[in-house]
Structure prediction request, 457 residues.
Amino acid sequence: MEATGGTALCVCSFLFILTEVSSEFIHIPSLVHHGTEGKPLLLPVEIHFQLDEVEIQGTWSHTTTSGTRTTLVTFTKNATITDMMYRNHILFREPNVSLLIRKLNQDDEGDYHLNLNIQFHNNKGLVVKEEKTVRVIVDVPVSIPVIEKYPSYAVVEDKANVTWTCSVERGTRVVFQWLRDNVPLGPGDRYHFSHDNSTLFINPVRKEDKGTYRCIASNPISKGRQSRNMELNVYYGPYNLEVNSGQGLRTGEVFTINPGELVFFECQADSNPPNSYVWISKSRNTTQIITEGPRLEVRSYRLAQAEEYMCRAFNNATQKQDEAEFTLVVASLGTGKEKHTQEGGSVTPLAAITVCSLFIISCMLLFFLKRTCHPKRVLMNIYNRPLAEQKRPHRSGHEDASEDFGIYEFVSIPGKMESAQASCRSLARFESVQDMHTTIYDVIRHVPETPSHSLLK
Ligand SMILES: *[C@@H]1O[C@H](CO)[C@@H](O)[C@H](O)[C@H]1NC(C)=O
Ligand SMILES: *[C@@H]1O[C@H](CO)[C@@H](O)[C@H](O)[C@H]1NC(C)=O
Ligand SMILES: *[C@@H]1O[C@H](CO)[C@@H](O)[C@H](O)[C@H]1NC(C)=O
Ligand SMILES: *[C@@H]1O[C@H](CO)[C@@H](O)[C@H](O)[C@H]1NC(C)=O
Prediction:
């Protein structure tokens, strides 16, 4: 019993050691190699034994992606037979077991098998068989992608589908990406992509699809080759029709203007191509086209009468139209702006009366001033007296009217005197005559004397 147990253990250990040792003899660092078309590719093999202690015999063979297997090289420690078809294509230098493909092409793709028999000199009869497989992938650089659109002409919103295709002449394992106005596009209700994203189907087309499209093609060795830009023009609208005016007063859809004021109305809508506009008058229970184009000019005098208007926008590509109605009311708004425009032209009777009244009031003020203050004398006093004496009480009376004829100077000092109280007493108190604003009056008429103190106070 013990003997059989020991034998089994021994066999197990031997097998374990054999497999363990076996995997140590050769090592391939990478089992998948990406190569670039036109470039060399080395399939390196490390050997973990002393070449002078062994005899070796092996082959490199290739299975293409379609499944055809060919033996490329048969070798021993000191002899190599290369398949005639591959002499210029591969490089093998025994006893180095690595295989070099000089210039990769797409046919080189597939699995490469290394079979190696190693016979150890010192252990006669022990032959270790090694088999390793390396996968080779050949990447082809991506050419500039070509973008195409069907249909090629502008399309009408909600009525058309658009198919975009992106294609490359060369390139392996290419993935495509789509951009509209530099924003990447993803699948959605209306956006459908083919499995490799080379086709984008938009169904149906909407206003927001309008823009500049571009596709990007990439693979592991070519990043982001970009196509040229292509426009998608979508006819849409009219949307958001509205009527605006810079003048008048707007309350909802009612515009109030001053009688006789010239008012412009603008009709605007979002539309591609641009709308054509017509303006329609709806007054008197009939509709009537007044004018065409985005602008309407109205001058109305008929007070308190509401007039109905309508702007109609029509897009001849989508065959859609929209209408906006508004009411025009003529009434005096009485804003400063309108007064200006009304009085700008000619002098109205009201203006004439105002000017005359102002003139008369000015004359009366001047008269009272003269009667109460005698500015001439006060000024003479100010100019002639020494400064210290200027605070003396002023002269209150009007001694002699015959002295009052002559040139008068009206003096005001900004910030110190209220305009209505330009009395001589204030003047007399000024210690300095600097910064005074003066007006010269020439009194040429004799005027009767009236008591005026109470009025000025
Ligand atoms: C085998 O050849 C390759 C290139 O042909 C070389 O890079 C590698 O170092 C060689 N290995 C040995 C052990 O000489
Ligand atoms: C758009 O695509 C839908 C679904 O594929 C199809 O039913 C419709 O007829 C297409 N419209 C046009 C204008 O090609
Ligand atoms: C005005 O229009 C209304 C409704 O469209 C109609 O009932 C009415 O008879 C019209 N009046 C005149 C004077 O045409
Ligand atoms: C549509 O209107 C534009 C002007 O707004 C005009 O140039 C164009 O010819 C019209 N197209 C059709 C099909 O009527």
About this structure: The chain has a mean pLDDT of 79.
